[in-house]
Amino acid sequence: MILYTMMPQELIFQQSYHQEQSQPKLINHNGIPVIVEENEQKQQQIVRVLSTNPQDYLNENYYPGQILS
């Protein structure tokens, strides 16, 4: 089945999406605002960097998928 839509997948598959994934939350890690989710091992994993400083996007320690310590 192919579904062509502009709606986000979270709105279409609300129930299954919320059961499988934890809710993302906004935190400041070393002064850099990031959105993180908790993975299966109860570690925080970066989903998105929200900084207004372009240098933060070039920082190798902050990228989507990175586990924060």
UniProtKB/TrEMBL annotation:
This is Uncharacterized protein. It holds the Pfam family YlzJ. InterPro entries: YlzJ. It comes from Priestia megaterium Q3.
